Amino acid sequence: MDVKTAFLNGDLEEEIYMEQPEGFIVHNQESKVCKLDKSLYGLKQAPKQWHEKFDNLLMSKGFKVNESDKCIYYKTEGRLCIIICLYVDDMLIFGSNLHVINDVKSMLSVNFDMKDLGEADVILGIKITRTENGIFLDQSHYIEKTLKKYNYFDSKPTCTPYDSSVKLFKNTGDSVNQTEYASIIGSLRYAVDYTRPSIAYAVGLLCRFTSRPSLEHWNAIERVMRYLKKTQNLGLHYNKFPVVLEGYSDADWNSLLDDSKATSGYIFNIAGGAVA
């Protein structure tokens, strides 16, 4: 669901005045200003006031806030459970059945101007596909957009994101296109954090050279992009059963030749898909 003009719902805690907007200036009252009764887009506190408004409503309806993520709300009644995930003005609603989901939708629609977008298909660039055995999440559209943005869409695909025989060092010479390097790293991090853990090591390593990338670092980034070209449609699949938590970890010894530091890594899976 989507909240229309979400920031206009916030209640102000301070007295705030604004100039009369162009086209609505009162004749012979040009020197006067307007006092805001509600929050307005452009105010620094607008996002905070909107979230506070939404938070207070759900708390009054018996919802609790997830301790790990303050934008996730949940409510249980016996064997029934409802979960709301909020991102600014977009939200996903999960429930034990359609009845409890529709009740929450009705409650929200009474308090806010809502738009029901139906069954979730795409959220924050993540495509949701329902299968016979569970749910599949991927970012194929986002990856395609990223490849085209940085002119790697027509590059030659490769089967691995990093060449383990290549040893990267800090650049002691001139930086090579640092701004675009940082931009690509940010785009890759978004894929890593949601559906592409297979590039986590390579991207994490390349992050260390963001301040002064060299040609060798650019070659390594190109390798990651070529791998994404090859595996654009890969993602995460979460099975219906069993919902088992599994964790794996590993570490090397003295992998960074510049400062002799070790590198460790871990992954946690639930229902067959990575969650951390």
From TrEMBL:
InterPro entries named among the record's database cross-references: DNA/RNA_pol_sf, RVT_2
Extract the Pfam families matched here: RVT_2
Q: Which domain of life is it from?
A: Eukaryota
| Domain Reverse transcriptase Ty1/copia-type residues, every copy | 1-162
Q: Which PANTHER family match?
A: GAG-POL-RELATED RETROTRANSPOSON (PTHR11439), INTEGRASE CATALYTIC DOMAIN-CONTAINING PROTEIN (PTHR11439:SF440)
UniProt name for this protein: Reverse transcriptase Ty1/copia-type domain-containing protein
Natural source organism:
Cucumis melo var. makuwa
